[in-house]
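Hydroxyacyl-coenzyme A dehydrogenase, mitochondrial (Parambassis ranga), 308 aa
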Amino acid sequence: MAFFHQICRGFSSSAVRAVVIKHVTIIGGGQMGSGIAQVAASTGHSVTLVDTSEDILKKSVKTIEGSLRRVVKKKFADKPEAGEEYVQKVLKNVSTSSDAGSAAQGTDLVLEAIVENLQVKQDLFSHLDKLAPAHTIFASNTSSLSISDIASSTSRLDRFGGLHFFNPVPMMKLVEVCGTSATSQETFDSLMNFSKELGKTPVSCKDTPGFIVNRLLVPYILEAYHLHERGHGSKEDVDIAMKLGAGYPMGPFELSDYIGLDTIKFILDGWRVMDPNNPSFAPSELLNKLVAEGKLGKKTGEGFYKYK
Ligand SMILES: CC(=O)CC(=O)SCCNC(=O)CCNC(=O)[C@H](O)C(C)(C)COP(=O)(O)OP(=O)(O)OC[C@H]1O[C@@H](n2cnc3c(N)ncnc32)[C@H](O)[C@@H]1OP(=O)(O)O
Ligand SMILES: NC(=O)C1=CN([C@@H]2O[C@H](COP(=O)(O)OP(=O)(O)OC[C@H]3O[C@@H](n4cnc5c(N)ncnc54)[C@H](O)[C@@H]3O)[C@@H](O)[C@H]2O)C=CC1
């Protein structure tokens, strides 16, 4: 198996030795970045969480604290004091910064979870590539973009991979680990080991749109929008049907609000440019309207449903 990866990925002369990831810099303190920071800090990693402003970062830390309290309510049900101690201990592992460049300077892994836009991700990594130490691995949590395209903005193609988590990160056990044709075996192994250290189950993916889960999940979600737009089922009935008839924990409209409608639109718009005639990526007027109105789902208080 190891030999197979070596053939597939090749080795560049700048290949590094497998990195033991102790310090992680996470760029983007939204839903995903704060969840990943929480899990990394809970498993003993030292984390720097970066976003564009101190106000956003304060909100991110509040989210982490709230989520940790949900975890300890169950984990320490009979020992609330030990639970509180645990929350404070984990929070001590998280520091914040609004300066990505300085945060990248003493870190083993830079993982981005910012907006799903290729140019913005490339600009970020191109900037950090000049500042991060040589051994630092770069990874993207992208839902739909090509890891090779993002990595092309840097000079560390062998130390670049995909590390795709699922929402809500503290609950979802899967991580998709993606190596490109240029990712070194050492980098791939480091990302697999890191995922396991976080208590997740990693699977290996090719650098193809949506990796495994989203390539299957997003067309299913879009099919639900089209079914509803044709007048063949209310949102509520579609959601109930898929929960009770197919055993899904959330129906497609609830799940869309949970993921974020802007993220789903970014994914579909990007894939349509790549493959314009594929009916699996056909536009949804309803989705476009909600996004244009700023109704992005749970995070804005309204999407397909209202949360206020
Ligand atoms: C877009 C992409 O690129 C990829 C993606 O992420 S696709 C999306 C993948 N995610 C999914 O498919 C999620 C599907 N939904 C689910 O699995 C479940 O509904 C769920 C895990 C989110 C919630 O579980 P649930 O039993 O339905 O509801 P809920 O009662 O809210 O939660 C149960 C418990 O889970 C835990 N929990 C849920 N969310 C949590 C969070 N964010 N942090 C900590 N604990 C949490 C808590 O212990 C919670 O109990 P309390 O409410 O008492 O605190
Ligand atoms: N929402 C989901 O269910 C999932 C999303 N993803 C991917 O993770 C990434 C983030 O998604 P979410 O957390 O949902 O988005 P979000 O909108 O909740 O958070 C994004 C955060 O990034 C910050 N940001 C934007 N540009 C930045 C920059 N240049 N530097 C620093 N911070 C910046 C924003 O201020 C915001 O706080 C996207 O690529 C998305 O496709 C992956 C798995 C699941």
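The radius of gyration is 20 Å. The pocket of NAI (ligand 2) is lined by residues 27-33, 50-52, 56, 100, 113-116, 120, 124, 141-143, 165-167, 259-260, 263, 299 (CB under 6 Å). ok done for today
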